[in-house]
Amino acid sequence: MSELAPFLLYFAAALLVALTRGLPRQVILLVTPVVTGLYLWLGIEPGTHVTFTVMSYELTLLRADKLSLLFGYLFCIASFIAGIFSLHVKDVKQHIAGVVYAGSALGAVFAGDLITLFIFWELLAISSVFLIWARGTERALKAGMRYLVFQVLSGVLLLAGALVYYHNTGSLTFDHIGLDAGVAGWLILIAFGIKSAFPFLHSWLTDGYPEATVTGTVFLSAFTTKVAVYALARGFAGEEILVYIGVTMACFPIFYAVIENDLRKVLAYSLINQVGFMVTGIGIGTALALNGAVAHAFSDVIFKGLLFMSMGAVLYRVGNINGSDLGGLYKSMPKTTMLCIVGALSISAFPLFSGFVSKSMVMTALMQEDYGYFWLLMLFASAGVFHHAGIKIPYFAFFAHDSGIRTEEAPRNMLVAMSVAAVLCIFIGTQPQYLYALLPWEVAYWPYDMTHVLAQLQLLFFSALAFVWLNKKGLYPPELPSVNLDMEWFYRRLVPVGVQRSLNLLRSAKGATLTRATAQMQGVQTEFGKSPMAKYYLSESWPTGSMVFWISAILAAFILLDIFGLGH
Amino acid sequence: MSDEKEKTYLFDRPENVERLLKGFYAICILLVLADFVLHRHIGFDWEKIPAFYAIYGFVACVLLVVIAKKMRNIVMRKEDYYDE
Hints:
Oligomer: heterodimer
Radius of gyration of chain B: 22 Å
Shape of chain A: elongated
Strand order of the largest sheet of chain A: 1-2
Largest interface: A-B, 52 and 49 residues
């Protein structure tokens, strides 16, 4: 039975989605992830290996082990939830893009060689950009273009890395690569790094995701970065540089998140922060840390999806997602408020919610490996998450000052999708043994002991206390309609303005040179006019007409001479 | 659609906000007290400081906000900055 690569089910479904309307299409959208999920669960054993030969090259379309299966289950759950959330959407291209995108993510995590990985890597890029473009605004169009440039660049680097790797090792199998592989290793690491939003390479995410459609962002938040986390866990586990990168990723976005006004962009920054925890875990490379990294990817997809859904519901109902314009929405959207709070508690790693049981593994691994200062920084990042995602998001959207906006509760399908996600957050948080049983590496770990719970509660409650105190003192930065400069400034402002300035400079240089040259010429003429030479007839400037006249006269003279044979 | 018709919601009453905050402060105090009663495992030396996590969480968040506010002076631009 397990000869069939799971992505094929999704691609077939995408075809059916294109051909159907209304209820049948909705059924396909919901049945596909369920069927694929069951197939992964029941039909594919770890160790399955399916190859496909094309032009004498062997592609490994299905390589299943506990690591790829874990991500496979996750992507089925994510596309199921996102499918429910987008059931009301009529726009067929968004549905096709969503299904192909989820299918490509499945293709990528089951890819056994670098070429197959590359193919799905690019399919992820191409399918996902339609979820941004579908918004239909000019901003979305441009942001999608910038997003696509980054994604395709990542693919090109991956292909280049794969070719160098093949040249050096004679193999294209996608297993541990490591930086010992030299140039190939670095190229592939940077390719993975772009998709997992490493610092300086992250702006496609914070630039693109907030511009996507209400439902598109929910899809986007689930797949691209998590495929990259999977790829890093498989290819670069234990590379110490990832600890430095991961800690940076966990720390710097929280500052932006505090002052950002667009609440979906706040979530985009907090997405980078959460991926930072995963990257750190991969960098530490012990069994506990790696388990923590992938477990955190699992919980993150669900709670981040929940948060993006709740903000999507607000955007859908209110038509605006700027913190400066919202507030008091708990009055008209009480259910969305409650569900958003479940997501907020999960991302903040509150005990009994999903973030707690996965993030604590990474923190414990940092402690075990004696990364003291990094541990402190990650603790800072943990407090910061609660501050911006746990409190800021629900507070400014649903509470704060009453903006006077009265609207309706989110549509039923959105509420169902958010409820499924919320139930999973609490289920994983209270019954972590089921998630732990799926983790790829063997290690005994249990998050609920007195130390952990007490420490985490103190950290979170006093972070909240800081928020309350700063708010009461009026020290909390107000939400302001604004944009904050980040890495995209370099290519959205510096380069265009630089090019414009250079062109202007060249243009004015050309003008100045011309003026100067003309003046020089005139100066020479004036000087010449003063000289005795100017008195001679030949030195005067003649009109072109007179020259033509004299040339004609000379020619006529020659012809006459020739006619009369006088020249011979 | 007149204003009189709109009902009063949970946090429209200041006393409810007050109640919520009082409960919150009480939990904060209890959590600090628990630190003196219960024994935490110690991994790093700095964890030995009483109520370490509470102090760290509070200071971290205040620092975060203060630095982020300062950052606004450098990075904040008008909303249409890139559209010009």
